Amino acid sequence: MTTHDIYLLSPEISMAGLAILLILVDLVVSRKSILTIVAVLGLAVPLALSIVLWFDLTDQAATQMKADFGTEIVTFVVDKFSLFFKFLLVGATALVILASSEYVSKFKNFHGEFFALILFATSGMMLLASTVELITIYVSLELTALPIAALAAFMRDSRSSEAGLKFLILSAISSAVLLYGMVIIYGFTGTTVLADIATQLGGLLDGESAFGGNALLFGVILVIAGFGFKISSVPFQMWAPDVYEGSPTPVTAFLSVASKAAGFAVILRVFYIAFSAEILSVDWSAVFAVLAAVSMTFGNLVAIRQNNIKRMLGYSTIAHAGYLMVGLAAVASRTPDADAIIGPSGVLFYLSGYAITNLAAFSAVIAISNRINSDLIDSFAGMARRAPFLAGVLGFSMISLIGVPPTVGFMSKIYIFGAAVDTNLEWLAVTGMVNSVISAYYYLRVVKVMYLREPIDDAPVGSALPMKLAVMVTMAGTAFFGIYPTPLINLARSAVDVLVS
Amino acid sequence: MSLTDSLGTNWAWVIPALCASAFFIIFPIRRLVPRIGAAVSILAILLGFALFWFVLVGLLSDGPGAYSINWLTVGDTTLKWGVVVDRLSVTMLGLVTFVALLVQVYSLAYLTHHGERDPGFGRYFAFHSLFAAAMLTLVLADNLLFLYIAWELVGLGSYLLIGFWHERRSAAEAAKKAFVTTRIGDVGLFIGIIMLFKATGTFDISTIIHVASQPDGINQATLNISVFLIFLGAMGKSAQFPFHVWLPDAMEGPTPVSALIHAATMVAAGVYLVARLLPLYELAPTVLLIVASVGLFTFIFAGTLALVMTDIKRVLAYSTISHLGLMMLALGAGGLGAAIFHLVAHGVSKALLFLGAGSVMHAMNDETDMWKMGGLRRRLPITGWTFVIGAASLAGIIPLAGFFSKDEILLHVLDHLNPVFIVLALLGVVLSALYMARIVLVVFFGPPKIENESAHESPLVMTLPLILLAFFAATVGFLAFNYTNDYPGFGGFLEGHGEFKLTIWLTVASLALAVGGVTLGWMTYRSGTISHRRLAERYAWIHKLVINKYYLDDAIQWTIDKLVLTFGGFVGVFDRVVINDTGADGSAYTVWLSAMKVRLVQTGRFYNYGMLMAGGVVGLALVWWIVQT
């Protein structure tokens, strides 16, 4: 490892370093609110290093990191694509930490560890966005999964423990599935480097391969299944609602935003680089199209029946995984003259919009439910009078989740469904729109309960300053990018250029 | 380069941005510190007015400019937010900022009765800023979508301001009527915009005009229908027959609002829209003829109504409708410069008249009945004499603004339209002079009435705008002449070509008719040579017809009550039984039922989940296999 490699890895290293620092600080300070401040300010370091790397992206060879596996192979790259996700992940983590500043008082102890685990998971996700080699992908994936299992169980009551255990075991099953897939692909191509896989597959798919293509394709299916778990796509979504409901709410927010973003990062990388052969991409696009349609329909239908707002948002993320997979299905090879990056840039744009909106929703939910000690939607009755600001933000983020202007949810839906239409997937766009209508039912129910029902209790619900800050930042982002999304779209488009060049 | 050097046409977008920011600043603090709200609002529009001069100088030295940023790219279409700074938009910019500034200053006093501020003081100025931002965006917009958004915001601003005293039922009703009536036209406008977009693939106005002017640019039928639909929107906003019904009712709003919105700015938006798209209309001569005919009809129709109204503000309202008709007539004759010239002259004069009427009402405890006024020029000298100037300008008396602009319009009508048009237009000129003479003579001359004994002149904050407006109402007309070689008169300046012309006999004829109208008014309402009461008795049926506004409002009400509501009732039953119970509730019930069933997948048990994942892998493999074969 050279100094240059350390420079390339510096955002991840500083993130892990910050986590260790927090554990140490926790030992010496008695006022736990200092931890939040240290964590949020400390996040400026990985962010700043990512920005420095962004402006240093001139020589592509200089941004690759090689590891010695007998032969030297490229395992890690720094490019606009990975940096986009690093910005997103650092930002989301900062907001989650702000939003949990009050929540952590529920834990008797281990405040520092709670924040540290979040940061460790984030550093794993940041690695995941940068890896270009199957073994490194697997290791980074485990690096994110284990802290999350611990975080899910952090509350140490029965539901939380159940959530942690479920996540751990099901994540192990999915890892096994993923590894099987990777092994089959390695068996066919003799390499674990994504770019080399693409070259080898090109040769295999041209002629008739010895086993027929089918065994190889089964490997790809297993990879989809393994990643499908991460992004909570149907039929690998079962863990999501149980874990979302049982986990501490900030962990739920973290799971729904950061974990999902990292999952999509690695899917885009693997499928656009390793499986980019046209004959292959037309097929996996169809698989993602079916998964998208099934996920959004399932997520929305089941969300209708939920009474717990965390569980409802859990199903809602399944539905949004479906909308996001529309972008995966929209590959350019489906049509002769399509915009090559419309699909993947749609995924990135939608992910960032969804992250902002969902964090707004979760921050408001954390702020309210923390004070009223209930996650039931019915207990939010009359919240418009008890906490006008928080209710307004929650209502606004619900509007954005439905996809109604002037919110970023609307803009990103337009963009991603537009990508589907451009790549001859009109049926998928229509399915998505019908699903958006269905989703209005349960999102608007929250608004209805807050604004039209009589409050159970007249006591106003206040919130602490870090909470207010998180809520305001996300709310402003939701509105701003809903009115003027072009900067975000341009950023997303420049980030995905490396996938298709 | 100093700041003043860099201030040019590229700063035009700042003007609406200032007003928009003012709105966002004032709205949250409107109740806490209403006075600061008013100050912010006036400061914003004052800065806007100052910037207008820099933009104007920039325009004259560097020529027109267009500035845009990309808003959104969807597929192959890029939507933009952009401003176009040319002679037309800068003229409107000047008019809107100037009148808005004076009206806001005037409102400071108007909304204060006996030292007590109206409870909605802050809200009033917030809405004013919102309206100004929308209106300024509308005149600067370089694409139809952006224009449409501003157009609707103008409608919203108007709605909020008409209904400012919303606790009064009539005001709330009037606001609703204005909004709904203009919305009917707006639907046409929107469909027209979408049609043009489909035909050309862009919202950008200059590109659309460019495409349409190509030999095989836009199919003629498409063009005809789309520009006609757009004209419907203009008819709604500019209160052209039969959409004019909302404007007289809109007088329920505070009088300064009427001066700003329903005299100088919002109602001018329709005229501005047609003027902006005039090259398209010229490619569709049939529609252009419709524009001219609707304009002419409205000009005369509203003129007769202005003659019989007894409410001072309603007379002015009908006079406004009438003059908007005259502007449309000018556009129908292809006279862009003449129409906008009259728009400016009328805007200044009518704002003056409305503010004067407001001053009278302020002095007489909100009395609006003309017949309860009289001899007010002695009690309210400044209001009285400025009012006379405004009225004479609109009556077409030389050398005031209205005379010159009206003259240019008549010239265009004579040159470009069937002779019938000029004859009828001259008749309208007589009507204009007559009702203006009537209002002035009844309100400000003649013997004082008991009701106005305590009337007193308004404070300086109110009379100063009157004096300024009167100055411009008297002098704007002189812009008509071609003083130097590079200034071909106002019309030529706006259109960028053409030169100042004069047809002596027409000028003399129109002036004679205007003076004749005023004389007739004198004989009727002052000297009593002709008794209007006796006339009204003799031709009772005509009088009844006109005083009931040709029963048009009743006809519309009847149509709504009998036809629309009956049809609506039928549709309502259909909706309840077929759409709602079977369709919506039916499908919602299906969704609900499926939700019940699908939910059961989620058992909470590990082995179920594991099985489902394994099944999922097999299922995916099947999907792939099916796709492949």
Name its key features:
heterodimer, A: 501 residues, mainly alpha, two-stranded antiparallel sheet, 20 helices, 2 strands, 75% helix, B: 629 residues, two-stranded antiparallel ribbon, 4 strands
Helix-residue proportion of chain A: over 70%
Shape of chain A: globular
SSE pattern of chain A, N- to C-terminal:
HHHEEHHHHHHHHHHHHHHHHH
Strand line-up in the sheet with most strands of chain B = 1-2
Report the biggest beta sheet of chain B as strand number plus sense, adding barrel if it closes: 2 strands, antiparallel
Give the CA-based shape of chain B.
globular
- Percent of residues in helices of chain B comes to over 70%
Textual characterization of the structure:
The complex is a heterodimer of chains A (501) and B (629). Chain A is mainly alpha-helical and 501 residues long. Chain A has one domain (3-500). Helices cover 75% and strands 3% of the residues of chain A. Chain A has a two-stranded antiparallel ribbon. Chain B has a two-stranded antiparallel ribbon with strand order 1-2. The mean pLDDT of chain B is 82. Chains A and B meet through helix 7, helix 9, helix 10, helix 12 and helix 17 of A and strand 1, helix 26 and helix 27 of B.
